[in-house]
Write the structure tokens for this entry.
Amino acid sequence: MISQIVVLVVSWIFYFLIHSLLASIAVKQLVATHWPAAMAYYRLFFNLVAVLLLALPLWFTLAWTGDWLWQWTGVASWIVTGINVLAILGFVWSLRFYDMHEFIGFRQLSEQLKSVDDQEHFQLSPLHRWVRHPWYFFALLLIWARDMNLAMLISSVMMTLYFVIGSWFEERKLVRYHGERYRQYKKMVPGLIPLPWKHISETDRKKLLDGD
């Protein structure tokens, strides 16, 4: 069992390191300097690698057939299922507020954009009034609202740690891109878990978008 744990943890660490490295500004600047024509393909390449490499730790997680640490039954099972459904619906609904062509990399490719910086402008969807990273929040709900064996628990902990650490690095880039506006926004809205007493009004959201 120890060897299985080690393999699973190492596979997640390998994935996180590659994902973080390719997402870093330093690597993007390196590519832009030496292979500027490749930057138009970079975002699409990054997403493709992220999906393909994710298959490795997920395979180790699902292939591990161990005893359940806990299983939701009865009313609790219905509640957990409801949480998963709401998380998926929330994620799908949130897509309308993102430039998915830019996120996937199609726009960079079609317009042959070679900039290191992200192309999308400062955006705050209605969900961003409550939490700075809605997608991470929905992912955390999907990760934890399920039956757990040891492999799933280890993977859930690893992914949660990566969301915490990854969001910190991501926000450093967002401050670089958007400056004081994002610093103000950070002070007003929690990062990963919504807090009912800490959010911004629709008026404040529009003011931040307008740069006031």
